Amino acid sequence: MHGFDAAATSGEAGSISVAGGSSLANKPQMRHIGIVEVTFGQNVTVVEPVNLYGCTIEDESFIGPFVEIQKGAKIGKRCRIQSHAFICDLVSMGDDCFVSHGAMFINDLFVTGGPAGKRDLWRSTKIGNHVSVGTNATVLPVTICDRAVIGAGAVVTKDIIEPGFYVGNPARLLRRL
Q1: How far apart are CA 35 and CA 69, in angstroms?
Q2: pLDDT, one tens digit for every residue, the chain (177 residues)
């Protein structure tokens, strides 16, 4: 959730034109998406545009467009991360996982009542092997065992310790595998 530091800034203060011919007195700080300091395994596929920085992506994984994977995250072998997914710092994912479109991983529980300014207040997420995370699911800092399926739109707020299908908000076991 935090840690955007990958993109380079550019430009100097000054005026720029906007739609309709007006101008802004100050130019915004510009950051650019890209791939910075990523450790890639063999045969990884990345579809741009993406924002990948300081993370590890292991062999034969696929990263779709409009994905952000932050510094410190680890994606295992043969994983598939679909478009618009967000994987923050402190997420560790096993092998053969699938993360569907728009899935979000969160590392900050706002324990101080707002965004934590210190990394030591963030919490980690550990995802086992053969885990599937459905479209628009949200995964808070938890541990998810091997062979779990997180349904579309589910909100995972507690550790998942038994293989099965989990749905709803908060996510609950629908049926065992």
Answers
A1: 10
A2: 444 444 443 444 445 555 666 566 788 888 777 999 999 999 999 999 999 999 999 999 999 999 999 999 999 999 999 999 999 999 999 999 999 999 999 999 998 899 988 889 999 999 999 999 999 999 999 999 999 999 999 999 999 999 999 999 999 999 998
Whether residue 122 contacts residue 108, with contact meaning beta carbons closer than 8 Å, is answered with yes
**CA 99 to CA 134: how far, in whole Å?**
6
Structural domains in the chain, CATH included, are 39-176 (2.160.10.10)
Q: CA distances (Å), 113 to each of 24, 45, 108, 136, in order?
A: 34, 39, 11, 24
Rounded distance between C-alpha atoms, residue 96 and residue 61, angstroms: 8
The token pair that represents 52 in the structure block: 């990948």
Q: What angle do CA 132, 166, 111 make, to 5 degrees?
A: 95
Q: DSSP for 10-43, please give it.
A: E--S--EE-GGG-EESSPPPEE---EES-EE-TT
Query: What does pTM read for this prediction?
Result: 0.84
